[in-house]
């Protein structure tokens, strides 16, 4: 028997238990299982890349980007902060403002990576405060630039999908 996805009655713990019961009886689709595997892979990759001694080698393009940023900026921002965290937060907030909640929560959760990175920046007590502040500032403005690029790519992708995939002729 298929589970109904109606809201559970009550409040607090009973409602949570009822909701978990309904979720536990729901049918998992193949795309959902695939998305979970991909998400777990991304999390595993991030864990392997974290720390001073990474278990995964940094690719050459990223080393080149780091070297360029080291030359252009006094303090280089963290890569995950300006390439993933802030852009995801920016796009998630823009979608939230447009009342398009479909993937907003995923983007906002990914945006938390940038905020955790900022916190980690200030955990290095041996680094001067001015360097940490500059690193966060550089990460923020670079992340906003990358976020605007993400936003533009999203708009172009939506238009392409509407023209090709969601066409009324199909």
Structure description:
There is one protein chain. The chain is mainly alpha-helical. The chain has two domains: 57 residues, no CATH class; 97 residues, no CATH class. The chain is built from six helices and no strands. The mean pLDDT is 84.
List its salient traits.
single chain; 170 residues; mainly alpha; 2 domains; 71% helix; globular
- What is the average of the pLDDT values? 84
Report the sheet-strand fraction. under 5%
Please trace the helix and strand order, writing H or E for each element.
HHHHHH
Largest sheet: none
Number of strands: 0
Question: What is the molecular shape?
Answer: globular
Protein structure class: mainly alpha
Tally of individual domains:
2
Unreliable spans: none
Explain the layout of strands and helices.
Blueprint: H1 12-25, H2 30-49, H3 60-72, H4 79-97, H5 104-121, H6 129-164
